[in-house]
């Protein structure tokens, strides 16, 4: 297994990208090696189990979580991983298969404190929040600490805030960048493999952009040379993100401009995207990924420039002089970046609210609140009324454009023009804890394993 994996590492290194995350079978073989580690490979095996297995509800994550739970409980012994280390690693897996073992370990005097530390930073709790609360109500000190941490939003305050000043190196693509430039349709087959797919970004020549291999590989080394200067690289364009396939396009941009997600292989978050105009849905997708999208006049930004951004002041400076001014669409954007994305912020705020309610505390004042548009005193369209009903508004009232709202959803509709909904997409829903009454997919039915993933998303009907 190690020989084959090292061969794979070498092949990917030749392309300038990291190896694929471990599969469920590779993870199972890795566990067997951990039980009797070959001499000299101990550090390598530790690196693999810690950083190269997917988190969440991936099949490999299930194998990893099951073994770590056994080691943490003491029913298995491992030469390289003790009970505390196994519990700590469980706490890095974001949600899914690791939650139940961590909650059980709160009752263990030896590793309960370690389990609590993992749960304090875990947001994807959903119904299992009540399991922690029940333990806290029964007097479990570790569960009480977790509940208090959620109430204090330590998952949020422990992360760095958006700085007052941010220095970026400009990677500018003049004209309009559509998402097919960032995620070409002929390369759709590689989209699940983010680093490999990112190699095709800007693979076709255009003014100011010279691909390394026309039609196959974009200006990868040039972007890496900008990153090597030590600043974040900001993707800059006149118009950015029009078109379709926006998630994969965002993934490609973030691969070159973002930062690694700890303990999650081959995925990145954050980064800065600047455009005189950013397509609305692409803007939203960047928000979801924890990036900082900014609309401003980019006419005085050129390839390779070093620019200082002052996000709160709304200014961009070059050589100490202001070259553009801007205003973010919502102050909540700064909280989204700090939380690691819009979805983590929404889920985390909900978890904090539940914890504070359980402890009898008033609502948290830590988070920025969205400013809704002024009431026009006009009527509402049918669509606005539908959203209003989902938000619990009285009949006849609606939600106007620009309003921040969190509607309750009871069904999911997926219309996928580039092929069937993939198993990974269905598992994304499960990882978000989506429990819709009905999932409607306008597609041919995928594999049985994907149907199983769908059933985890929607227990009633899948």
Tell me briefly what this model is.
By secondary structure, the protein is α/β, with parallel strands linked by helices. It contains 20 helices and 11 strands. The strands form 3 sheets. A 7-stranded mixed sheet has the order 6-5-2-1-7-8-9. A two-stranded antiparallel sheet has the order 3-4.
Question: Using DSSP, what is the number of strands?
Answer: 11
Q: What characteristic shape results from the CA principal axes?
A: globular
Question: What's the number of domains?
Answer: 3
CATH superfamily of the largest domain: Aconitase, domain 4
Biggest sheet strand order reads 6-5-2-1-7-8-9
Measure the end-to-end span: 37 Å
The number of helices is: 20
Largest sheet: 7 strands, mixed
CATH topology of the largest domain: Aconitase, domain 4
CATH class of the largest domain: Alpha Beta
* DSSP strand content: 5-15%
What is the share of helical residues? 40-55%
Average pLDDT reading:
90
Query: What integer value in Å does the Rg equal?
Result: 23 Å
Low-pLDDT ranges? 441-462
Secondary-structure-based class equals alpha/beta
Query: Per CATH, which architecture of the largest domain?
Result: Alpha-Beta Barrel
Q: Can you walk through the features of this model?
A:
- It is built from 20 helices and eleven strands.
- The chain has helices at residues 2-15, 24-35, 42-51, 59-73, 83-90, 99-105, 112-120, 129-137, 141-151, 154-157, 179-182, 194-198, 220-227, 246-257, 280-288, 332-339, 342-358, 382-390, 423-431, 448-457; strands spanning 166-178, 232-242, 259-260, 268-269, 272-278, 292-295, 306-310, 315-318, 321-325, 411-414, 438-441.
- The chain has a seven-stranded mixed sheet with strand order 6-5-2-1-7-8-9. It has a two-stranded antiparallel sheet with strand order 3-4.
- A hairpin with a 7-residue loop joins β3 (259-260) and β4.
- α2 packs parallel to α4 (59-73).
- The protein is globular and about 65 Å long.
């Amino acid at each position: 297994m190690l020989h084959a994996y090292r061969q794979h590492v070498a092949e990917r290194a030749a392309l300038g990208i990291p190896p694929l995350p471990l599969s469920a079978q590779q993870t199972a073989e890795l566990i067997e090696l951990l039980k009797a580690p070959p001499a000299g490979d101990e550090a390598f095996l530790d690196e693999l189990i810690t950083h190269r297995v997917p988190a969440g509800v991936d099949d490999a994550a299930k194998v990893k979580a099951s073994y770590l739970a056994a080691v943490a409980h003491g029913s298995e012994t491992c030469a390289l991983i003790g009970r505390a280390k196994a519990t700590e690693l469980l706490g890095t897996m974001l949600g899914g298969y690791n939650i139940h073992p961590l909650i059980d370990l709160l009752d263990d005097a030896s590793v309960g404190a370690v389990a609590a530390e993992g749960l304090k930073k875990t947001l994807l709790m959903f119904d299992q929040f009540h399991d922690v609360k029940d333990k806290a109500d029964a007097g479990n000190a570790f569960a009480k600490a977790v509940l208090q941490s959620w109430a204090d939003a330590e998952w949020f305050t422990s992360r760095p805030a958006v700085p007052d000043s941010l220095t970026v190196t400009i990677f500018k693509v003049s004209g309009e960048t559509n998402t097919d430039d960032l995620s070409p349709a002929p390369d759709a087959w590689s989209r699940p493999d983010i680093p490999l797919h990112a190699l095709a970004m800007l693979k076709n020549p255009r003014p100011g952009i010279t691909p390394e291999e026309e039609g196959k590989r974009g200006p990868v080394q040039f972007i890496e040379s900008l990153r090597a200067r030590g600043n974040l690289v900001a993707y800059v364009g006149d118009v950015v993100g029009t078109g379709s396939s926006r998630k994969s396009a965002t993934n490609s941009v973030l691969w070159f401009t973002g930062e690694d997600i700890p303990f999650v292989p081959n995925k990145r978050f954050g980064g800065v995207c600047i455009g005189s105009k950013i397509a609305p849905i692409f803007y939203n997708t960047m928000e979801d990924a924890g990036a900082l999208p900014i609309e401003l006049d980019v006419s005085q930004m050129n390839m390779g420039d070093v620019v200082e951004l002052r996000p709160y002041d709304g200014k961009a400076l070059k050589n100490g002089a202001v070259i553009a001014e801007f205003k973010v669409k919502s102050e909540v954007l700064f909280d989204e970046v700090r939380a690691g994305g819009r979805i983590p912020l929404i889920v985390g705020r909900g978890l904090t609210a539940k914890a504070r309610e359980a402890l009898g505390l008033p609502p948290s004042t830590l988070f920025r609140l969205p400013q809704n548009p002024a009431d026009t005193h006009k009527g509402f369209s049918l669509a606005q009324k539908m959203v209003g009903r989902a938000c619990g508004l009285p009949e006849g009232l609606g939600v106007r454009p620009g309003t921040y709202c969190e509607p309750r959803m009871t069904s999911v509709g997926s219309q996928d023009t580039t092929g069937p909904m993939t198993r990974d997409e269905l598992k994304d829903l499960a990882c978000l804890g989506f429990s819709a009454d009905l999932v409607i997919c306008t597609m041919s039915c995928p594999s049985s394993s994907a149907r199983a993933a769908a059933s985890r998303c929607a227990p009633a009907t899948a």
